[in-house]
Amino acid sequence: MKFTQMAKANEIERDWIVVDATDKVFGRIITEVATLLRGKHKPSYTPHVDCGDNVIIINASKAKFTGAKIEDKNYYTHSGYFGSTKTHKMSEMLEKNPEKLYKLATRGMLPKTKLGKEMLKKLKVYAGSEHPHTAQIKG
C-alpha cells in the first residue's frame, strides 16, 4: 500500500529564488511569489507545514500596473480610534516604500494564521537591482 508522505519541518530544504519585477505585471508577480512562499510548486507540499522557499524581489519599483490602478487604488489604515482612518495612494506607496506595497499584496494571498506570518517573513523586497543575499543563492 502507498501512503501520502507528509513533510516535516526539519526535513524541508529551502531555496533562495530571485524574481526580477522589471516590466512585469504587479498582480502576476504577487501570485507567483505567494505560490513560491507557500511551497505549492514542490511535490512535497503539505498545507499545515511551512515548506516554501525564500523569495527576493528586485527592481520592485519598475513593475507595470494595468488599467488606472496606480492612480485610483487606495490602501486604508485604522488605529482603532474614531476618525483615525488614513488613506494611502498606490502611486505614493510605490515611490516611498515599495516593500510595504508588495508585502501587503502578498499577505492577502497567504493564510491568515501564524503560519502565514512565518511565510511572509521569507519575502525580501528591494527597489533597486542590488540585494545583500548573494551569499545564499546557489550557482
TrEMBL record:
<dbReference type="GO" id="GO:0003729">
    <property type="term" value="F:mRNA binding"/>
</dbReference>
<comment type="function">
    <text>This protein is one of the early assembly proteins of the 50S ribosomal subunit, although it is not seen to bind rRNA by itself. It is important during the early stages of 50S assembly.</text>
</comment>
<comment type="similarity">
    <text>Belongs to the universal ribosomal protein uL13 family.</text>
</comment>
<keyword id="KW-0689">Ribosomal protein</keyword>
<protein>
    <recommendedName>
        <fullName>Large ribosomal subunit protein uL13</fullName>
    </recommendedName>
</protein>
<dbReference type="InterPro" id="IPR005823">
    <property type="entry name" value="Ribosomal_uL13_bac-type"/>
</dbReference>
<dbReference type="InterPro" id="IPR005822">
    <property type="entry name" value="Ribosomal_uL13"/>
</dbReference>
<keyword id="KW-0687">Ribonucleoprotein</keyword>
<dbReference type="GO" id="GO:0022625">
    <property type="term" value="C:cytosolic large ribosomal subunit"/>
</dbReference>
<dbReference type="GO" id="GO:0003735">
    <property type="term" value="F:structural constituent of ribosome"/>
</dbReference>
<dbReference type="Pfam" id="PF00572">
    <property type="entry name" value="Ribosomal_L13"/>
</dbReference>
<dbReference type="GO" id="GO:0006412">
    <property type="term" value="P:translation"/>
</dbReference>
<comment type="subunit">
    <text>Part of the 50S ribosomal subunit.</text>
</comment>
<dbReference type="InterPro" id="IPR036899">
    <property type="entry name" value="Ribosomal_uL13_sf"/>
</dbReference>
<dbReference type="GO" id="GO:0017148">
    <property type="term" value="P:negative regulation of translation"/>
</dbReference>
